[in-house]
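Re-run requested by the PI after the first attempt was lost when the workstation crashed. Everything re-entered from the original request form. Ligand of interest: S-adenosylmethionine.
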Amino acid sequence: MLTTALHFSHTLLKEIVQVGDTVVDATMGNGHDTALLAELVGRTGQVYAFDVQEQAVQATKHRLHELHLLGQTTLLQQGHETLGQVIPDTTDIRAAVFNLGYLPKSDKHIITKPDTTKKALEALLPRLRPKGRIILVVYYGHEGGADELSLVNDYCQQLPQEAYNVLTYQFINQRNQPPILFCIEKKP
Ligand SMILES: C[S@@+](CC[C@H](N)C(=O)[O-])C[C@H]1O[C@@H](n2cnc3c(N)ncnc32)[C@H](O)[C@@H]1O
């Protein structure tokens, strides 16, 4: 069976993330991706996770504590647009994941936005290791979502093919605007 964009994002991460790696969860939310990444990098790795909402940081902290995965994570209650100030530019990042949209069952007005998403991508690209991946799962059914989808699509399309492979994955016959996945892979 073809898998959902969310499930496929996990497959794309599992294919490349190794023990000891440094990785980024750009939109922590309830910490599902943070937990997956923390498991993959192990105790010798490092996950930087960002979210602007205290509720998200607390939920993620709780999840990681239960799973004994807190040690290899840095949880930051700040926007991913600050990534360039937090992660040294000498750090090699194996993978980063974004789930763009709003936190389910929470305030639908706190959404990711095109300008800050772009800023985070610009800080990530030079830090990405060869063969490293940035994965964006874009939910766009809410107000403001179409603008962000447009930014991500345009940003990905203009990346030079000499340096990056870029993939999109989407179901084109489904109702209710299922998320669209983008994967940017740096060429060796
Ligand atoms: C779709 S949810 C993420 C879901 C998450 N991956 C999970 O496992 O639950 C999007 C999240 O992005 C957060 N967010 C909004 N603006 C942000 C920003 N500038 N930087 C980081 N996170 C942001 C929201 O607070 C929300 O929790």
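Saved to the shared folder this time. The chain is about 35% helix and 25% strand.
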